[in-house]
Amino acid sequence: MSLDTWEHPARWRIHEWAEYGLDQGLDATLAEIDAQSWSDGRTGCIDESMASFNSDEAWIARVLAAEGHTVIALPRSLREGVKSADASVSGLLTEFKTYSGISSKCLSNKVVCGLRQADRVVVRVTAGLGDPTEVRQVFDSRVRASGRGRMRGLKFIGDDFHFEWGSWNRHVCDPSSDTVAREPGAQSICCVGRNDSAAAVKSFSPAST
User: What domain of life is recorded for the organism (predicted)?
Assistant: First the structure.
């Protein structure tokens, strides 16, 4: 089943946010749309009825949809100084980034840039800095730094790794868990808490490239 936010009666709040920078009621509207997708059995959808993803963003969206998230492309705000997230992921404003270089510092800076638009960031890490161990070190560093900032969720996704921290969706992952790590080649991801004890396991189908 598909999801068409354009048909939702409260879509005007998304337009007010994009055109005028008015975010009153935006979070509630996105949460309502997500709750409706669950009640209608339309989870794991990608909705581009209000905006379109570029190719890198679409890759991320496919991965998230395969996890069971409802991913909605959001229009860019026309107002200067207004945060403008790329997507709603399970009702939560999220910024998508892609990194293909070889610098750990630059990868970390991608997260900083993403946080200027939303409290949750997903970074696709492509060829270049592709060693999962090195990527995990950057990921852990950003998670540790989250205590000094406002980051509420972070994902690093590559062809053979998937690291996740924070609050994303109570329907998809146990809210008590803090970190998710998908081992290379695995067909599932494991939600891991602060003590590295497994909290939940859910199926994962890698997105097509």
Answer: Bacteria
Contact 61, 53 (CB under 8 A): yes
CA-nearest of 49, 55, 56 to 75 is 49
Give residue-wise pLDDT tens across range 30-57.
Answer: 877 777 777 776 678 898 988 899 999 9
Which class would CATH give 5-203? alpha beta
Q: 14: buried, middle or exposed (CB in 10 Å: 19+, 13-18, 0-12)?
A: buried
